[in-house]
């Protein structure tokens, strides 16, 4: 009997993370969106030449777009294709998800941020979060909570030895 191949680790599917978004915003809801990509962009993503730190999502005419997502073209890219690394890319979301995003942004003052880019099967997916901006006080409280959790874990680890 042949053994089945084990699935790869979840972390290996991640292309890029936006750690700055978790620091600057309180993310309340997450959505998974596909993207309209060109062939050279997918090849570049496979090599990991992507930066989503400066990207932002906006809604226009009932459609969602991501801007500032930087995909560096490969050196061996085709010469007949004009590679624009920061072009605006359309996000593929269900109508219900789009309506929820539009309502939250327009009525409740939320922001849509890109939090992660990862592979799901052979498809590249962008995780977008519905977020509210943090104030400086909130950031300090989060830092205190992280420090306390680290200290508590350290004490618990040494007390069981």
TrEMBL record:
Q: Where is this region: Disordered?
A: 132-161
Q: Name one Pfam family in it.
A: SmpB
| Biological process per Gene Ontology, one example term | trans-translation
Q: Where in the cell? A: Cytoplasm
Q: One GO molecular-function annotation for this sequence?
A: RNA binding
Q: Where is the composition biased (Basic and acidic residues)?
A: 133-161
The record's annotation in PROSITE patterns points to: SSRP (PS01317)
What are the record keywords, sorted?
Cytoplasm, RNA-binding
**One term under GO cellular component:** cytosol
Source taxon at top rank:
Bacteria
Q: Which NCBIfam families match?
A: PRK05422.1, smpB
Role noted for this protein: Required for rescue of stalled ribosomes mediated by trans-translation. Binds to transfer-messenger RNA (tmRNA), required for stable association of tmRNA with ribosomes. tmRNA and SmpB together mimic tRNA shape, replacing the anticodon stem-loop with SmpB. tmRNA is encoded by the ssrA gene; the 2 termini fold to resemble tRNA(Ala) and it encodes a 'tag peptide', a short internal open reading frame. During trans-translation Ala-aminoacylated tmRNA acts like a tRNA, entering the A-site of stalled ribosomes, displacing the stalled mRNA.
Which PANTHER family does the entry mention? Answer: SSRA-BINDING PROTEIN, TMRNA-BINDING COMPONENT OF TRANS-TRANSLATION TAGGING COMPLEX
Family to which this protein belongs: Belongs to the SmpB family.
Protein name from the UniProt record: SsrA-binding protein
Origin species: Agarivorans albus MKT 106
